[in-house]
Amino acid sequence: MRIEYKDGLLFTEISIEYNGRKKKINNIVIDTGASHTLISQDEVEDIGIKVTLEDDIITSYGIGGKEHAFIKTVQSLEVGEYILNDIPLDFTSFKYHNINGLLGLDVLINGKFNIDLHNLKLQRLQ
Length: 126
Description:
This protein is mainly beta and 126 residues long. It contains two helices and ten strands; from the N terminus they run E-E-E-E-H-E-E-E-E-H-E-E. A six-stranded mixed β-barrel has the order 2-3-8-4-7-6. The chain has a two-stranded antiparallel sheet with strand order 9-10.
């Protein structure tokens, strides 16, 4: 699948399904420095993903400082033709302009993805 290099970052798109509602999310940064995939809660409110009192809240630390996120299990996460079912994902308010999430190592390693920087493609190893 094609990836886009802009503003010094690698971008792709994903699709999420939650409670039978599916949404494509653009401007997802491929982030090999992120241990977990993290999605902007603003991008998924329209399909019913919102924080509730029953959700687990996690705190993570990185270059941007301390971040809080809530965890929801989604029916599916699609990256190209690769599909993960019943996967817990982290959701937070994103303070970065034009970035709707991070595709982290939890998905990249599980999917056996290879990042081809010469051809700007995200490929799965067979």
